[in-house]
């Protein structure tokens, strides 16, 4: 049996180091690779590989179709982020692992592991991804932009979350913090022994967690879960969170009072996410203006359209033209239950112990800056570094965030 296992390990190691575009099925008890591919970050002409999923930049009018950030600026940002890279070639490994469903029962989930083609692996980074709409944007289905950090010598681990990848047919419990954090933690626990199997165990046991936007809230939820339950298995080095909806009730309230949202599809996604994640059994149609719920449900749950495309379909950024008067009135029984659920999914109800970095642009029209003000107030006295300034819109803030994380990683591990 040991001999057979040794042969399997050698086979996997050879595939990871040498092969491209192979499909691999291995009967490990941990992370199960389903596809392995070798990807250069930069092409011979110096441009970034177009297969890498770039963040999308919506115009000021978020109801317009999506626009991509200019490729020249992306190339510049990528160069700044990576600096002197260890290996231009990254091995991306899509795979499955056994996580937990909303009831805590075993559920097969998916995600992606990205590694430098050669050289030592410094440490593992758990990435909590930002809001996506189409399943084609799920980490297991693409090369996530954050994965370029693998070329600096890191094992980058990105979970799909429930509702994407292999669980595409399920409703995504959007911003349900416990289940999202559990998916991230479960994948980290599954990948560690797999890295041992293929001879790429990290040099340092302490891990990094980071995320932006939805991923920012998920990063804090993951931090809270790790410090409470998984200190020995996944000890923390540092956590980086950017522009997250850390206080869901305040975020919901703020958008209703302003009667404006920078991400229209978030309104139905939040109500649906809380309803599913918290098992509220709400009468969903009562929460939306006529016809909005049915159409939004089709657009969102089909997993065929990006966030910007769904925003374009909705056609308005006014909350009052998306959510019904019933949904905006906290005195209603069901609305009050929704707000209690939003409160339970705040991630400001703990005291972080590991070093934490928070960034947010004050110009952000997608995730209200009030979230970071509340975080600063809640985390007073903790080991937190803040970077709040006028850094442009939400996606520009993301690029600054990723550059800052990259430079701080250099200080930690070089």
Task: List key phrases describing it.
414 residues, nine-stranded mixed sheet, alpha/beta, disordered N terminus, 36% helix, Rossmann fold
Can you walk through the features of this model?
This protein is α/β, with parallel strands linked by helices. It has helices at about 1-20, 70-80, 175-195, 215-230, 250-260, 265-275, 290-300, 305-315, 335-345, 370-380, 395-414, and strands spanning about 30-40, 50-55, 55, 65-70, 90-100, 105-115, 125-130, 145, 155-160, 205-210, 235-240, 355-360, 385-390. Helix 2 (about 70-80) packs parallel to helix 11, helix 3 packs across helix 4 and helix 7 runs antiparallel to helix 8.
Strand and helix layout:
Blueprint: H1 2-18, E1 32-40, E2 52-53, E3 56-57, E4 67-68, H2 71-82, E5 89-100, E6 106-116, E7 124-128, E8 143-144, E9 155-159, H3 177-197, E10 207-212, H4 214-229, E11 236-242, H5 248-258, H6 266-277, H7 292-301, H8 307-314, H9 333-344, E12 356-361, H10 370-378, E13 384-389, H11 394-413
Parallel strand pairs: 2-8, 7-9, 7-10, 10-11, 11-12, 12-13
Antiparallel strand pairs: 1-5, 3-4, 5-6, 6-9
Helix pairs in contact: 2-11, 3-4, 7-8
- In the CATH classification, which architecture of the largest domain applies? 3-Layer(aba) Sandwich
Number of strands: 13
SSE string: HEEEEHEEEEEHEHEHHHHHEHEH
Helix content: 25-40%
Q: What Rg, in angstroms, do the CA atoms define?
A: 21 Å
**CATH homologous superfamily descriptor of the largest domain:** Alpha/Beta hydrolase fold, catalytic domain
Class from helix and strand fractions: alpha/beta
Distance between the termini: 40 Å
